[in-house]
Amino acid sequence: MATEMTTKQAIDAVEPVKAPSRRRNRRATIAWLIVQRGLMGVVTLWCISVIVFVATQAMPGDVAHIILGAGATADQIAQLNKNMGLDEPLLTQYWDWLGNVLTGNMGNSLVSGQPVSELLSERIFNSATLTVIAMILILPLSLLVGLLAAVFRDRFFDRSYLGTSLVVTATPDFVLGSLVIAVFGTVVFKVLPPVSLIPPGDAPWQHPKQLIMPLAVMTLVGVTYLSRLVRVSFIDVLESEYVQLATIKGLSTRRILFRHALPNALAPSIPAASIMAAYTIAGSVVIEYLFGYPGIGSALVDAVAGHDLPMVQAIIMLMAAAFFCFNQLADVLGTLNKSR
Amino acid sequence: MLSRLVGKEHGRRPRVLAPVAFAMAVSLAAAGCSSSSSSEGSGGASGGMLRVGVVASTISTIDAYSNVRSQDFYVRNAALFEPLAHRTKDGGYQWALATGITHNKDNTEWTVKLRPNVKFHDGSPFSADDVIAVFNRILDKKNALIERNYVDFMDPKGIEKVDDLTVKFKLDKPYGPFEFAVTNSNIIFYKKGSTPEQAMGTGPFSLVAFSPGRETTVKRFDGYWGTKPKVDKVKVISFKTAEASTNAIIGGQIDASSNILQTSLPTIEKTPGLKVMKSDVNLKVSIGMRADVAPFNDVRVRQAMRLILDRKLALSNAFDGLGELANDHSGFDQCVPDVPQRQQDLPQAKKLLADAGKSNLSISLETAANKPGMLQLVQILAEDAKKIGVNIKVQKMELGAYLEKWGERTFYTGYDTRPYLEGVPEIISKDNALNHTHWHDPEFESLAKKLYATSDATEQCDIEKQMKKIEYERGASILAATNPTVSVYSSKVKGLVPEFPSGNLYDFTKVTID
């Protein structure tokens, strides 16, 4: 909220100034805003890294026991801890990690000893692909469904849409995914691959069939959430005086909807869409795990189970950075919209 | 579980299908409905690619002695590398990289003859130097390898090269089951000086590609000394969960897997084109009782716990009736003592507890539920115990937390998959992590000394029977039933056999694909 005020104040402050200097001031203000947000992002990520480190240390069990299993002797556990550098004090371990990160090195996996960047590079690309395609589907579909529901408000389409979206929103992604797998992959129809097996080295879009089910679930969850916001915005706009005036003037429904209502209804939905993108990134953990999709979400589940701190840190930081960026985008878009 | 879940959800909320179908249609349209089907998995009577599903960690490595040991590690190693010999069901050996092992009279000097004309995947010859390099790595404490537990009677300085195909092991004290120890299936051989990434073994397949936690592709090694594989390639595909592996085999994405959800077997059996294969029953889920602290430091309490459990119910409900009843002694079904099958006897259990002054015993039983049927087994025990006023509180824990206190727990679950000769050193160990029940029986330990001093198989078997009888009478583990490994494979695949003793799918040399 504080940052939002700052943005608003900054924009308000430049209002009375004349055009050329106003543009200069505006550019300077935006540059300062970006620097400010960037610094905030760095601090946020540092805080997250500390929280993740503390949380991982607080988890019961240690990585050496998990790797060697029940048959390991105390001296084997101690030796493996030494080999992995886990016999160092916690602060030293953290500073070593932080020092590496600041020089662009995300460290090595505790368990396999391989560089984290090597283990994650392809998975990051796969996850980004899944999320981007999901967002490409979610945004126009949400708009379309929300618009139709608003136009046909309280009629059959609207009521069945509201009921369906309520059910979908209330159903956990995991259950929804399991249901989709059973219906289309294993039990009823068997028309789609139940597991997203993307061969190493291949881009996900080279195997579109493998993407259908995870994308369907992500899209379904995203659309049912976002389209409700679009619907409400559209209903507000359709009930406004200027739309009523346009109707009285005899403008066509298409012109009223797309020329007058859409831009105004869209504005409050854009920040929500940015937040939706952030949630889609976080939600991909469940989807990737369920469908066996080779992304960072499924890697995170394994890394947490294996107490592999460098892997956990790298993945959480990546997700947090993406989450932060989308939140900031939502914030800026919301502020700009208000000032307009 | 999946089918149960689906059935329930399907009946309760049919409307969910509408949006699902809608989203499917959208995604189908977006993805262009293009097909990615490939010819993988098909092939003639010889040739083709076999796709095997395993449950594996994201962070597995290609190293033959990696500490990260998911199922993919074992399947990959069995294709790329070989041990000195394979153990057989009858207790004998099928020689692989060795052709025989001889010893002196007092079992302190063992000579391993290696197979001639064996080549590594790069064409270089396998020799004594490679064997010595591997044993030195295993015995080096700095490497923290679990294999050291099997051969820690050796001194690296006592390993000598006699010639290119002969290695001599001089021991500080007699060790009878030397052959058994060095033929452990995890003691496999790679080329001395090669890097782990090269995976330079002598196995029937050589490495094509490895992607950690995703897949390993191997191809037929034409220079293999033994029966050459018929398939061109094997792709070992990693899945995060048994659910995913099960879905993939039902959906036709893989040809075979031994990581299958047992609860999905009814669905699988009804699926055309799939076959189910059960392994020998060598896995026993165990309930351990720490014998050096109350209440289990009293043998009457331990025996009472064994009598409380309804083993037939455990077999049918916890293990889906797939295995056989077990009788509270470890090891496989060879050299079994002549003792009656233990059955539930609640009055006797109640009497034993009363005699021990523990009539209203209340105790926690901790489990990580990391094997099929484990959680159900302890729940059945807890329910049975209630009938005689014993309160067993089952606590399910995350595996990492569970293992952290391994060796310190009082009442807990574990599992036994090993032949007796491999398990006994842990049962008599002074190390609490190995001898997690803390059970020390002087007669049992004395017999163990005799067992490891003789190399005579008949004498070993007699001693084993006596030791198992002691376990039955006063041991510290409840071993109720065995649970086999169940594999599922496509009916197009011929020649798959369950590996002894694990039951998993490791041997692909005889496989053909229609």
First-residue to last-residue Cα separation of chain B: 32 Å
Number of helices of chain A: 13
Kindly provide the radius of gyration of chain B, computed on alpha-carbon positions and rounded to a whole number of angstroms.
25 Å
User: How would a crystallographer describe the biggest sheet of chain A?
Assistant: none
Largest sheet data of chain B: 7 strands, mixed
Shape of chain A: globular
Of all chain pairs, the largest interface belongs to: A-B, 86 and 78 residues
**Would you list the SSEs of chain A in sequence order as H and E?**
HHHHHHHHHHHHH
Strand order of the largest sheet of chain B: 8-9-10-1-11-18-12
What's the level 1 CATH class of the domain at 282-484 in chain B? Alpha Beta
- Based on secondary structure, the structural category of chain A is mainly alpha
Report the sheet-strand fraction of chain B: 15-25%
Helix fraction of chain A? over 70%
The number of distinct β-strands of chain B equals 20
Tell me the total number of β-strands of chain A.
0
Low-confidence stretches of chain B: 1-45
* CATH fold description of the domain at 282-484 in chain B: Dipeptide-binding Protein, domain 3
Strand content of chain A: under 5%
Radius of gyration of chain A: 25 Å
Give the averaged pLDDT of chain B, no decimals.
Answer: 86
Oligomer state equals heterodimer
What does this structure look like?
Chain B: It holds the Pfam family SBP_bac_5. Chain B: Residues 96-410 form the Solute-binding protein family domain. Chain B: This is ABC transporter substrate-binding protein. Chain B: It comes from Actinomadura syzygii. Chain B: One of its GO terms (molecular function) is peptide transmembrane transporter activity. The complex is a heterodimer of chains A (340) and B (514). In chain A, 78% of the residues lie in helices and 0% in strands. Chain A starts with a helix and ends with a helix. With 340 residues, chain A is mainly α. Chain A is built from 13 helices and no strands. By secondary structure, chain B is α+β, with helices and mostly antiparallel strands. Among the domains of chain B are: 82-198, Dipeptide-binding Protein, domain 1; 282-484, Dipeptide-binding Protein, domain 3 (Roll), CATH 3.10.105. Chain B has 16 helices and 20 strands. Chain B has helices spanning 2-12, 17-30, 71-80, 128-139, 148-151, 178-182, 242-250, 265-270, 299-308, 311-318, 346-355, 374-386, 399-404, 420-427, 442-453, 457-474, and strands spanning 49-55, 85-87, 93-95, 98-103, 109-114, 159-163, 166-170, 205-211, 215-220, 233-239, 256-257, 274-278, 284-289, 362-367, 391-396, 411-416, 477-482, 486-490, 493-494, 512-513. The radius of gyration of chain B is 25 Å and the shape is globular. At the A-B interface, helix 3, helix 4, helix 6, helix 7 and helix 8 of A face helix 1, helix 2, helix 7 and helix 13 of B.
